[in-house]
Amino acid sequence: MTLTRPFLLAALLLGSLSACTPPGATTETVTRAGQDAPPGAAPDSCWGKQTTPAIIETVTHHVLLQPAEVLTDGTVLHPAVFKTETRQDIVRPRQDTWFEILCDTELTPELVGSLQRALAARDLYRGSNSGEMDRATRAAVRRYQTPQGLNSNLLSLAAARQMGLVAIKD
Fold first, then answer.
1. Which of 19-33, 34-48, 124-138 has the highest mean pLDDT?
2. Do residue 128 and residue 154 come from a single domain?
3. Does the pLDDT of residue 5 top 50, yes or no?
4. What does the buried/exposed string (b/e) look like for 39-67 if buried means 16 or more CB atoms within 10 Å of the residue's CB?
5. Are residues 124 and 154 in the same domain?
6. Mean pLDDT calculated for residue range 153-168
7. What pTM did the predictor assign?
8. Under a CB-based contact definition with an 8 Å cutoff, are residues 44 and 33 in contact?
9. How confident is the prediction for the chain on average, in pLDDT?
10. How far is residue 119's CA from residue 57's CA, in Å, rounded to a whole number?
């Protein structure tokens, strides 16, 4: 396959832009089952999807094209000739992580108030106990979930169960 110069420049530019994404940066989407949900999701469940971008590393190395010509006394007649090659390697591929979240109907003011108290008890939330899922509450949810491998401000069902906010089904 032959690539044209403009195409190569565009590919390198896109690759360098994706390489500038900070490690661990993610994007999130919220879905209802039946729309864009993981396979086997229950129809009445809600899901969050965390997309972690690929990590791309640029590797440059020199390839020997012609060795140096050296006399027996050490005099160099012609230095070695090298060619520089650059390529991009995917260190970690893009990953989509699905996690079940509480649906909007389940995030009642009473539950959110309990969530705020649970986060405050863990010294993760310092706001008022308003019962609203505001920016400070979402930031505290992220601080709670990040050490567990979920960098999201959407309250996962697993985190709600860990804090004793939602009953664990048998």
1. 124-138
2. yes
3. no
4. eebeeebbbbbbebbebbeeeeeeeeeee
5. yes
6. 93
7. 0.63
8. yes
9. 84
10. 38
Residue 63 lies in a domain: yes
Which structural domain range is residue 80 located in?
55-92
Does residue 150 form part of some domain?
yes
User: CA-to-CA distance for 3 and 75, rounded, in angstroms?
Assistant: 42
Beta bridge partners of 96: 51
If one compares 85 and 3, the residue with the highest pLDDT of the two is 85
Residue carrying structure tokens 């959110």: 112
| 108 belongs to a structural domain | yes
Predicted confidence at residue 170, as pLDDT, reads: 57
Handedness of CA 15, 17, 19, 24 (dihedral sign): negative
Which of 64, 92, 120 is the endpoint of a domain? 92
Residue finishing a domain among 46, 71, 92: 92
Mean pLDDT in residue range 126-147 = 95
Per-residue pLDDT, 42: 87
pLDDT at 39: 86
